[in-house]
Amino acid sequence: MPLQKISKNSKKVLKKQCVTKKNIKNIREQKFNQISNDQKNEFKYIHLPKISIKQIETCYAIAINNSNTLCIVAMCSMIKIMEIQELKKELNQNSLEDKALCIQLQILEGIHTDIVSTLNFMEKPENIDSFISGSFDGRIIIWALKKIKEDFVKPKQWFPQFILLGHISYVNCLSLLNDENIISGSSDNTIKLWNLNKLKNDWSCIQTVREHTDIVLGLSINEEKKQLISCGGDKKILIMKLTSNGKLQINQIINVDIRGSRITFITNELFVFLQESSNNLHIYKALRKNIYEKYQEFPVSGGGQSCDFYFPAQYIKQMNLLVLKNGRCVNLIKIVINLNNQNIEIQCNQQQVLTFGKLEISRTYGTLSNNGDLLVTWNSTSNQIQFRILKENIEINHHI
């Protein structure tokens, strides 16, 4: 057969393969969007205005402990600690009556010298009241309850138990590998792995990852605690694995078109990433040997709006719920993953969109409790700490 004819046939085959792949992608997106549009909204978050707290100081970070008894809120360089004493909800036919009481326990000041940008509670039951703060001053502080001998001081008081020094610029993101290992990302372009030496009762930086060439904006650890992902201003996503000697090893680098700060694992082999002010959420899947590729996109609200780095993406596994800030909007997205003949089908349903303020410069920060019952936010339009509780099994209007 002439070489020219073989070449023409090859081109036809390649063209047919490209068309087939395009058709498969279109079918997948149509099915994906159909599922998203058809599914019933299963819950919404109801605002409790009676317990809103006025706060004029900028709040970049909020955290709730695992027992839903403590809420900590950044106030510029200070930290407000509140006790959630009681949170009840009684639903009538057309009304919601809420009774709640938040008591301020302490304001921590004079330790951080610049804006507090990250807050995370420890995870183990014995450390349930201890938490970690990161700041624009480059410091990471571990706070613990004061004790006299073996008894906690009453009323409760916190003190800076450890101060971790190493970053030379803003601490932008922080994740806990466990209560003895902390991972931090900074505007000094580095990711640091910190370890608690129990014998010396002291923390130290045991590794610095310098692969990012611009500020580190987001971090997430998978459920198995074996992989770490990061995103940065250099338009890179790093896929790292935790080696047997407890160090981080880069396994893959993904280049993206636009930088982003919201990234989180959904399963051990799926993660989502939102490019800055994008109209679409990108879903990445491990296809072979833990090599990730973009698998799917899902439309989200808030695209085209100005959006800063803070208020990280958060996934609540027991609810299949993703909390995703984008511009002035907070998207609440249910993600359901089904196995169909060894193929993964990802179903996304936009449950609710909370829109804060009408100004382009409106800033919103917050967190969702680990059980999904309580959403706490602060925004620069209202200058309020606002509380929202979960109401399930209803049909709702997305924008409230």
UniProtKB/TrEMBL annotation:
Pfam families in the cross-refs: WD40
GO BP of this protein: iron-sulfur cluster assembly
WD repeats: 164-197
Domain of life per record: Eukaryota
Record keywords: WD repeat
Any one annotated GO CC term: cytosolic [4Fe-4S] assembly targeting complex
InterPro entries recorded: WD40_repeat_CS, WD40_rpt
UniProt-listed PROSITE patterns: WD_REPEATS_1, WD_REPEATS_2, WD_REPEATS_REGION
PANTHER family cross-referenced by the UniProt entry: CYTOSOLIC IRON-SULFUR PROTEIN ASSEMBLY PROTEIN CIAO1-RELATED (PTHR19920:SF0), WD40 PROTEIN CIAO1 (PTHR19920)
Protein name, as recorded: Histone acetyltransferase
Species assigned in the record: Paramecium primaurelia
